[in-house]
Amino acid sequence: MTTLLNGKELSEELKQKMKIEVDELKEKGLTPHLTVILVGDNPASKSYVRGKEKACAVTGISSNLIELPDDTTEEELLSIIEEQNNDDSVHGILVQLPLPDQMDEQKIIHAISPAKDVDGFHPINVGKMMTGEDTFIPCTPYGILTMLQSKDISLEGKHAVIIGRSNIVGKPIGLLLLQENATVTYTHSRTKNLQEITKQADILIVAMGRAHAINADYIKKDAVVIDVGINRKDDGKLTGDVDFESAKEKASFITPVPRGVGPMTITMLLKNTIKAAKGLNHVER
Ligand code: NDP
C-alpha cells in the first residue's frame, strides 16, 4: 500500500513549531527578517515570492519585498544587495531566480553575504555542504530530506537514484543522501538506459521539469518516489514529473504535486532565515 508524503501537512506542523521559536526570539528582542528581491514580472516568480511572504507572516518572521523592473542593471542590483548585506536588521537575503538575461546569475549569488544566503547557493555554503559542515542547506533538498526523515524512511545502504543534476536540486539532494549513507546514482539528459537505472532505485528523486515523464515502468516495487517537478498544464493546474496515478501503484511512499515538495521548500527557507537570525552561519569574508 502506498503512503502519501504530504508536504503541505508536514510544513504546517513545522511552521507552528517555528512560530513558537520566533515568538521566543522576539521576546528577546530579535525579529528574524528576510529580504526578498524580485527582478521583472515573471508570473511564476511572482507567485513563488507571494508564497514566501505569506509563509513568513504565518510564522511571525518579518519580510520585505524589493521589486525591481525588468531592465534593472546588474550594477543596480549589486548595489541593493550590498545595502542589504550591510543592514544588521536583515538576516536573510533571497534573490528570486531566474534573473533577466542582462544579469550574470552567478555574480549575483556571489554578492550575497554567505551569512545571509538563506537559499544556500553561495559557493562558500555549497562548499561547506559538500564537506559536511553545518551551513544553509538549499531549501528544496533540505525539504526532501526532512520529509523522508519525518516518516523514518531509512536511507542507510539504500540505492538513491536522482534524475536531474541542477545546482539547486539534483546535485545537492544527492550529496545529502550520500551523507546519510545512501548509495547515490546521478542521471541526466545524456544518461543511457535511464529506465534500467531507475528500476534499481530504492529511493527515486525526480527533478527533470518534464511533465509525467516517469511512470510505473521506471519504478521498482516499493520504491520511495519523490517528485520535485512543477509543470503547468494547459488548464493552468500544476503537475509533477511523475505520472502519479500509475506510480502510486508501485511506490511505498510518494509525494503528490501540488502539496508535496513545494510547500516544504518554502518552509525550509523559513528555517534557514531563523538560523541566520540566530547567527548560526556566521562566515567571515
Ligand atoms: P533544471 O532544468 O535546471 O534541471 C533539469 C535536469 O533534468 C537537468 O539536469 C537535465 O539534464 C535533466 N533532464 C531533463 N530531461 C531529462 C531526460 N529526458 N532524462 C533525464 N534527465 C533529464 O531544473 P531544476 O532542477 O531547477 O528543476 C527541476 C524541476 O523541479 C522543475 O520542474 C522545477 O520547476 C521543479 N522545482 C521544484 C521545486 C519545488 O520546490 N518543488 C524547487 C525547484 C525546482 P541535463 O543536465 O543533462 O540537461
Large-scale geometry: globular
**Strand elements, count:** 11
Q: What level of helicity do the residues show? A: 40-55%
Any idea what the radius of gyration is? Answer: 19 Å
Beta-strand level of the residues, as a percent range?
15-25%
Computed structural class: alpha/beta
Q: In CATH terms, what is the fold-level topology of the largest domain?
A: Rossmann fold
Number of helices: 10
How is the largest sheet built, in terms of strand order?
1-11-8-7-5-6
Mean pLDDT across the residues is 96
- The CATH superfamily label of the largest domain reads NAD(P)-binding Rossmann-like Domain
- Counting structural domains, the number is 2
CATH hierarchy: architecture of the largest domain: 3-Layer(aba) Sandwich
Low-pLDDT segments: none
Ligand set: NADPH dihydro-nicotinamide-adenine-dinucleotide phosphate
Distance between the termini: 51 Å
Produce the secondary structure layout:
Layout: E1 3-4, H1 7-27, E2 33-39, H2 43-59, E3 62-68, H3 74-86, E4 92-95, H4 105-111, H5 123-130, H6 139-150, E5 159-163, H7 170-179, E6 183-187, H8 194-198, E7 203-206, E8 224-227, E9 231-232, E10 238-239, H9 244-247, E11 253-254, H10 261-277
Parallel strand pairs: 1-11, 2-3, 2-4, 5-6, 5-7, 7-8, 8-11
Antiparallel strand pairs: 9-10
The structure holds NADPH dihydro-nicotinamide-adenine-dinucleotide phosphate.
